[in-house]
Each structure stands twice: as C-alpha cells, then as structure tokens.
Specification:
Shape: globular
Bound molecules: phosphoribosyl ATP, zinc ion
Distance between the termini: 34 Å
Helix content: 25-40%
Number of helices: 8
CATH architecture of the largest domain: 3-Layer(aba) Sandwich
Strand order of the largest sheet: 2-3-1-4-11-5
CATH topology of the largest domain: D-Maltodextrin-Binding Protein, domain 2
CATH class of the largest domain: Alpha Beta
Order of helices and strands: EHEEHEHEEEHEEHEEHEHEEHE
Length: 294
C-alpha cells in the first residue's frame, strides 16, 4: 500500500504566493519549484502542492481535488456566497495578506450607508458578496461585473461606486475615490473540505497545523533575559508582556540580584524595556524565537 499524501492548493503567482510558500518553509517544508510547475512534492512530509490561480482554490478544495488550500478570505467568502453546493471551511486564520472588501465612492459624493446607492450602478469583481450586502440592507442597485481595473469605472462614467479590495487606500486615492464602508475584513486562510478524510490524512493535517501554529506563535513571541534585584522581582515580572511563570536563576557573585528568563507572548517594545530598567532591571536582552511547541 502506498503511503497517503495530502494535497494543498496555493496561489501560483501574485500577492499571496510568496507568503504562502514562506509559511510552509517555516513548517519545515523545503520545496524547489520552477516557475511554471503545477505540482510540487515535499520531501519532509507527505504533502504535495498544487499551484493555481487564487480564484480556483476554494472550488478545488470544496470538490475534494485538494485537501487544503491557502486563500484570501475575500475569495473564500465570495465563492461561499456564490455557490449553494460549496463545501469548504476555515481551518485557521494565517495572519498575512490583510485587506478589506469595501464600497468606495468618488471624492465629494455623499455616502452614509448602502441605501445611498439605491438605483445606482456599482462595479465589482465580487458580485455575490455585494449582492448579499445589498439584499441585507434592502437596497436595489445594478451590479456591473468587472474582472480587473474596477477602480477606473466611476471615471469612465460606467458606475457610480465600486466594491473592491483596499489595502493602503493609495489606489482609490489616485483614482479620485475614497473608502466609504467596509463590507468584509480579509486575511489569508487555511481552508479544508467538509468531507471526511482517512485517519492518515487527518494525522498529516494535524501535524501541519501544529507546526503552523508553532511558527506563528514563535513569530509573535520573544525570549527575554534580564538581571533584577530580588526585592524588585514582583514589579519587574509584572511588566513582562504576556509572560507565564518566568524562570528565576541565581547569579554567580550576583549579591541580591537574580536572572529572569521568560517567554513573552506579545511584542516587547522599547517603552517596555525602559520601564523594566526604571524598575531596576539591567542587562536586558530580547531574543527572537524560531520555533515553539506548547
Ligand atoms: O492571478 P490570481 O488570480 O491568482 O491573482 P489575483 O490577481 O486575482 O490576486 P492578487 O495576487 O492581486 O491578490 C491575491 C490576494 O491578496 C487577494 O485575493 C487578497 O486576499 C490579498 N490582497 C491583499 C490584495 C491586496 N492586499 C490588494 N491590495 N488583493 C488585491 N489588492 C489590490 C486591489 O484589488 C486594488 O487594485 O490592490 C489594490 C489596492 O491596494 P491599495 O494598497 O492601493 O489599497
Ligand atoms: Zn484571482
């Protein structure tokens, strides 16, 4: 019997491609791939990658062609809103590729709510999500489907407003538009199908997920080491952000001083270090953590 492998759908090229691969690398998968390759085989785990357009990822996972997928929430939510037979679910939020699907209107145009767009034309690449938002508010508007360059529609006088992805807002600003209302907030997701998988495949997914969580937790965490006078210990430990049970060690010839080592599960800012120093801490070191398993 051949050992089972799982198949993950990833964006082939584009905004999410590099970060998706970087996440898998952090999970210990080192994949060499040529630019036009559709399939890649990982040696370190029984995992194959399928590199496709992001719009195809939810469908490939929903239909079981791939077991997992890494895709933007905007694309996932659109497919979910569009398809009655859609059968994929969110396994994990991955914390990158943040953006918003928003309504944007020309500068100077009044906007309080979707109701202001009653009877008007809205250009979008996300017709199902827009239709749902309009229906929820009881607004009737014409949806103009565009697959790209949605932001030029108002200038071309083919739409009164747009519903598109916004990150920094620079694209809107350079087209004389501004963000009027956020419909959904989006980040990269790990998704899976709803169908049952073999125990072997479930096991591979569990292992991968544990590594992904370990990699993201490690990124958000820091290892902090410092020297502290014993009498100030409570104050100093209280200042450590998100630290659980620090290790207190005696110092060789350190008098009343001890060494404090702790994993901080939140960012350690310069301000925190200054406050620690004011509370009597010295020799403060903040170190990155590469991997973590709790
Ligand atoms: O070829 P393929 O179909 O795979 O890719 P694509 O061209 O459809 O998508 P791509 O690579 O542009 O984006 C992939 C995913 O990245 C999206 O589905 C989002 O989940 C996420 N993402 C994050 C973004 C942005 N940021 C983003 N800024 N997707 C698109 N944009 C575009 C947006 O459409 C607009 O044109 O960037 C412009 C706005 O950016 P700002 O910074 O000027 O506001
Ligand atoms: Zn796409």
């Amino acid at each position: 019997m051949t050992a089972e492998r799982i198949r993950i759908a990833l964006q082939k090229s584009g905004r999410m491609a590099e970060d998706s691969m970087a996440l898998l690398r952090k999970c210990g998968l080192h994949i060499d791939r040529s630019k036009d390759q559709l399939f890649c085989r990982a040696k370190e785990m029984p995992i194959d990658l399928m590199m496709i357009r992001d719009d195809d990822i939810p469908g490939f996972v929903s239909s079981g062609i791939c077991d997992l997928g890494i895709v933007g929430e905007n694309v996932f939510a659109e497919e979910k809103a569009a398809g009655e037979t859609f059968a994929a679910q969110i396994l994990e939020r991955l914390g990158f590729s943040f953006c918003r699907l928003s309504i944007a209107v020309p500068d100077g145009k009044a906007y309080e709510s979707l109701a202001n767009l009653q009877g008007q034309t809205i250009a979008t690449s996300y017709p199902a999500l827009l239709q749902k938002a309009l229906r929820d508010e009881g607004v009737e508007a014409k949806i103009l489907l565009m697959t790209g360059s949605v932001e030029v529609a108002p200038r071309l006088k083919i739409a009164d407003a747009i519903c598109d992805i916004v990150a920094s807002g620079a694209t809107l600003a350079s087209n004389g538009l501004h963000e009027a209302e956020v419909l959904i907030r989006s980040e990269a997701l790990l998704i899976r199908g709803q169908g049952a998988l073999s125990p072997e495949k479930e096991d591979i997914i569990k292992r991968l997920l544990r590594r992904m969580r370990g990699a993201t937790q490690a990124e958000d965490s820091k290892y902090i080491m410092l020297h502290a006078p014993r009498r100030q210990l409570d104050d100093i430990v209280g200042l450590l952000p998100g630290a659980e049970s620090p290790t207190i060690l005696p110092l060789q010839g350190g008098g009343d001083k001890v060494a404090v080592h702790a994993v901080c599960r939140e960012a350690v800012f310069w301000e925190t270090m200054e406050r620690l120093q004011e509370a009597g801490a010295s020799a403060i070191l903040v170190l990155p953590i590469e991997k973590m398993m709790i």
